[in-house]
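Entry 12.
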Amino acid sequence: MKVAVTGAAGFLGLNLVTALLDQGHDVLAIDRVPGTMPAGQHGTGTLRWESVDILDEDAVAKALSGIEVVHHLVAVITLRQEDPIAERVNVHGVGSVARASLRAGVRRMVNCGSMASFDYDKGGTVHEGTRRSTDPRLPVYHRSKYYGEVELLKVVDAGLDALTCNPTGIYGPVDHPDRLSRMNIGLLEVATGKLPVSVRGLFDRVDVRDVAKGFLLAEEKGRTGHNYLLGGHRYDLFEAQTRTAEIVGRRGPRVKLPLGVLVALAPLIDPIARRFGSESFAPAALENLVMSPVVDRTKAGAELGYEPRSTEETLTDLVAFFGASGLL
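Predicted 3D structure (tokens):
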């Protein structure tokens, strides 16, 4: 089968393209940054790269000629309150790719949403029926990921067969060693003894390989116009960091701050951290730990057969990846 993946050079893109090639598909990898895997034969599948601006609907439609399935992963992830680029890509980019897919005769489109597009209560449960992120006080990423789905559904109404998968916090192997994801960076800092202070806080995190698997299941079994939460396991950040350190024979964080203290200090620390290119203390960065939602992935399990691996397996494999990549 001929499959296109937008955002193929990203973290999830790398793992989804690998999974598709392992199944023997011919993959068109679309991204504006250089390809991260060599083009050509990979087992029984083939890979080719093409640089296309997803906001150029005509160019996307041309690139998708002959493609059967599109996985749309392109997004700008930001913790800022406002970001016009993120809004343009996360909202209008989805609409552009959806309309281009309809024009090109694509059989099915699977859109990558986010759990952030659901407006959940503190300590509450998130499911596909939870209210959506429309409050203007929410960070732009939350709002833009929801409004991207709104654009998609407009094209579904026009005849496109499409659906959305909403992953929780993605981490795990395989990642790009030279530009690790934010969550993987945090665990690498623990594994290398560079993070002596931590904080307790629960949040649902999912192995990137399971998210890729979830997209393939959604492509096959998902219902048109529906959402599927692809969750992992809700665990304590401090315990995950401690376990990561144990795997490499280290002690792990020595100081455990109450979450309330970190939240109180964040307004003072955030402006300084931003000067060094870090968004780790932005309000949105702490929100998930403060809100600590329970993710109900019953629908994905029942309709898609989705089931994530254990946290222990992901942490063990991630540390092995760090070692094999020379990061330890």
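Annotation: The radius of gyration is 19 Å. The CA atoms of residues 8 and 17 lie 7 Å apart.
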